Amino acid sequence: MKQLQIAVGIIRNPQGEIFITQRAADAHMANKWEFPGGKIEAGESPEQALIRELQEETGIAAQKAELFETLEYQFPDRHISLWFYLVEQWEGEPWGKEGQPGRWVAQHQLIADEFPPANEPVIQKLLNA
């Protein structure tokens, strides 16, 4: 069974909006919305992976990331460990650098059903913050 370690950025602007991107049609959990991020490579810390992934996916340079939540999730074919970071300081303007759609959404308007199921506890925590 696949074991994946994923670093995820919850990019939140001063207006309380969060930048989300849409998964590719041919990806696992296709067309779901997600917080940008990706696999932690060998030798990388979750925070190093987060900074690299946000640069690759959204074109921003994260300057400060605070660990918001960690969780484990079991899919039928894979086990994932997720590190969610709250990113409130960065350089640049986030966009879908890999061609993926991206948008800002008010934190209180996040809809868990639009995200992969592993994100639900984090979205609930954000909705209740």
TrEMBL record:
It is an enzyme of class 3 (hydrolase). Coiled coil: none annotated. It comes from the Bacteria. One of its GO terms (biological process) is DNA replication. It catalyses: 8-oxo-dGTP + H2O = 8-oxo-dGMP + diphosphate + H(+); 8-oxo-GTP + H2O = 8-oxo-GMP + diphosphate + H(+). Its cofactor is Mg(2+). This is 8-oxo-dGTP diphosphatase. The lineage of its organism: Bacteria, Pseudomonadati, Pseudomonadota, Gammaproteobacteria, Enterobacterales.
